[in-house]
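Subject: Re: docking follow-up (zinc ion)

Dear J.,

Thanks for your patience while I sorted out the input files. As discussed at Tuesday's group meeting, I've set up the holo structure prediction with zinc ion included as the bound ligand rather than trying to dock it afterwards. The sequence and the ligand SMILES I used are pasted below, so you can double-check that they match what you have on your end before we go further.
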Amino acid sequence: MPSTLDLETACEPMNCPKCETHKLEATRVNDVELDRCSQCRGIWFDAHELDTVLGLDSKETHALKKGKPDDWLNRKHARCPRDGSEMLRVYSASNHEVILDQCGKCGGIWLDGGEFAKLSG
Ligand SMILES: [Zn+2]
Ligand SMILES: [Zn+2]
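The structure tokens for the complex came back this morning:
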């Protein structure tokens, strides 16, 4: 059984890695629970969630495509909202125009607002 402390940590809202002043809000797409910032519209995907979500029907992911990229946020170095590690800038395998922020420790991926729309085409 997980301890109470673990449960509390898991339920604690994470801070947005880009604008930092906002908490991420849980949003559900199909069976996948994502964390999203209502201010900059960025989306946090835990390891492998991005692949899962990109494989879904576009009707299901429509809501994730809102927002437009913000140059300032795009250039900003982010820290992983889960473990605080510095995120790496990596080119997306599916669209080389999109640079993702990926955590080298937990493998989670941050997409800035509008980047999901570019990836899903
Ligand atoms: Zn934000
Ligand atoms: Zn991480």
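A couple of observations from a first look. The chain has one domain: 4-120. Helices lie at 4-11, 49-54, 58-61, 71-75, 115-120.

Let me know if you'd like me to rerun anything.

Best regards,
T.
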